[in-house]
Amino acid sequence: MKPRTFRPSSRGGFTLWEIIIASGILGIVIVNVSLLLRATSDNHNDSQVLQSLDLHARQTLDRIVIALQSAAKNSVIPAAEAPLYSSAVDYDVSLGVEDGVVVWGEPERIGLQMDTGEVLWFRSMSTEDERRVVWGRHVRPVMAGESPGNGLDDNANGIIDELGLSFTVDGDSVRIRMTLERENTNGAEVMREFEQIVSFRN
User: Fold this and answer.
1) Residue 70 lies inside a defined structural domain of this protein
2) Is residue 126 within 8 Å of residue 167, measured between CB atoms?
3) Which structural domain range is residue 54 located in?
4) 99-158 confidence digits (pLDDT tens)
5) Is 8 within a domain?
6) Which residues contact 103 (CB under 8 A, 6 or more apart)?
7) How far apart are the first and last CA of the chain?
8) Cβ(71)–Cβ(91) below 8 Å
9) Which of 184, 166, 144, 200 is nearest to 44 (CA)?
10) In this structure, is residue 184 part of a structural domain?
11) 47: how many CB neighbours lie within 10 A of its CB?
12) Nearest-angstrom CA–CA distance, 4 and 132
């Protein structure tokens, strides 16, 4: 009997199982790459929003600091001390000295506009000459970690029921706390907290 010889099949290509396995592996790779790209995009997006909030907060706080440094300590109303605070502060600014007497400007106010999340500066409040300027935006209604109206210091920073902008007087200085919040392009909230201490010069 003549021995049988095996010849390779002349048909090329892959079997159905090979195609299914290759498709599954390719699908897994595509999903992983997509997830990686999305995570990278989200991180970049969050980073851009945080940088924007940092810049915005720095500009807002710089304006507040310059204003309060020129204020007379005994003119600051209300002079709330921890655990109390105020979301607005009224003060008088020294314009200089004339004939040995300090000259004071019109009363000014810095405060939070709750419904818009804006930091507003006022001069000559409730008069025909009232001026109002927006100094900042994106302020949260309440400070990060705080639940309003429960009479507790939820975020353990020594202040009770703190709104998104707060002023606390401590001796010859005032502590400013502010929480900003914005949505990224995916609709997720990105939040940042800021704190600054200002010493009165007058």
Assistant:
1) yes
2) no
3) 41-199
4) 888 888 888 999 999 899 999 999 888 788 889 999 999 999 888 888 777 877 778 777
5) no
6) 94, 95, 96, 97
7) 118
8) yes
9) 184
10) yes
11) 12
12) 101
